[in-house]
TrEMBL record:
Residues 45-186 form the AAA+ ATPase domain. Keywords: ATP-binding, Nucleotide-binding. InterPro entries: AAA+_ATPase, ATPase_AAA-3, CbbQ/NirQ/NorQ/GpvN, ChlI/MoxR_AAA_lid, P-loop_NTPase. This is MoxR family ATPase. GO terms for molecular function: ATP binding; ATP hydrolysis activity. Pfam families: AAA_3, AAA_lid_2.
Length: 340
């Protein structure tokens, strides 16, 4: 952990945490505000994030910036075909001079773990990482060890590499709360990037400072858990996930884990935008990153070059969102708080 920043009243609210992280990250990062938003949501809801993008679009930099602004301990694991599960979780080493085995914890024992190019690791190693993500503990030589709290895995993968990669199967992709695409920036953002690095060639993730601490994260998590979700919004979530299972282009749709991901992420998104209640737009904005990696397309859809993202957008057009008042007045009537 880095040094704790000075106390700041109200910093532990979800909205204050998000604004502080975003503003500090933007000292280095150009664009990609949506990525920071979803990383914050994942941190506040115990989720994990899969970042996909071509080389050079700052996937690893984004994850490192995010970790540094939170002050959380972070480790980077470069995934390769020869990396073993023990290289991630740890192992025991015999110390001959004392005649004892010494436990060596692996890089998984950090608050933010960046797994670079996860699809380069073998399925066995991928499974070890993803099991730790789900169980939040690992077993080393028969001893079960809890992972740190908070615990967030940010995995990256390159969509254009075809040789020497092992695609994550659907059951493992389902462990990620979100899959986000880091695109080539628009020309205006890339020009700003040029200007920044022209003025400061040494600009990198180390330039940002810690702006929140673990107490703020825990306080924000508690606030997120109390966000109100009206019954019509819950039905809207169920309608979307159910429709993903019956869409003509889909062989396998979203699981119940996807339904819960919508619920938790919707509450966090509402909270970081200053609301104590979830609205349909929260659900709609989360639909693509929540569902896109969970859909298994039919053979005909794959042959027709249909993309999972286009299927999700089709679902959003098909399913009518709830109408009527779902704001603070509704929430108060059912036990919620007035957001103002």
């Amino acid at each position: 952990m880095t040094s704790t920043p000075p106390a700041d009243d109200g910093r532990g609210t979800p909205q204050a945490c998000y604004e502080a992280i975003k503003n500090e990250a933007e000292r280095v990062l150009v664009g990609n505000e949506t990525i920071i938003e979803h990383l914050t949501i994942a941190l506040l809801t115990r989720g994990h994030v899969l970042l996909e993008g071509v080389p050079g679009v700052a996937k690893t930099t984004i994850a490192t910036l995010f970790a540094r602004t939170t002050g959380l301990e972070h480790r980077r694991i470069q995934m390769t075909p020869d990396i073993l599960p023990a290289d991630i979780t740890g192992t025991t080493v015999y110390r001959q001079h004392v005649g004892e085995f010494d436990l060596q914890r692996g890089p998984i024992f950090a608050n933010v773990v960046v797994a670079d190019e996860i699809n380069r690791a073998t399925p066995k190693t991928q499974s070890a990482l993803l099991e730790a993500m789900q169980e939040r503990h690992v077993s080393i030589e028969g001893e079960t060890l809890a992972l740190p709290t908070p615990f967030l895995v940010v995995a990256t993968q390159n969509p254009i590499e075809m040789e020497g990669v092992f695609e994550l199967p659907e059951a493992q992709r389902d462990r990620f709360q979100f899959k986000l695409t880091v695109d080539i920036p628009p020309r205006s953002d890339e020009r700003e990037l040029l200007d920044r690095f022209d003025d400061n060639p040494e600009l990198e993730a180390d330039a940002v400072e810690q702006v929140i601490d673990t107490d703020d994260v825990f306080a924000a998590r508690a606030a997120v858990s109390s966000v109100y979700v009206a019954p019509p919004v819950k039905e809207y979530i169920l309608d979307l996930v159910t429709a993903s299972r019956t869409h003509s282009d889909v062989a396998h749709g979203g699981s119940p884990r996807a339904t819960l991901a919508f619920l938790h992420a919707g509450k966090a998104r509402a909270a970081i935008h200053g609301r104590s209640y979830v609205i349909p737009d929260d659900v709609k904005s989360l639909a693509v990153p929540t569902l896109v990696h969970r859909l298994v397309l039919s053979t005909d859809a794959e042959l027709g070059n249909v993309s999972p993202a286009s299927v999700v957008r089709d679902l959003l057009e098909m399913i009518e969102p709830p109408s009527g008042e779902l704001d603070a007045s509704t929430a108060v009537g059912d036990g919620g708080d007035d957001a103002g």
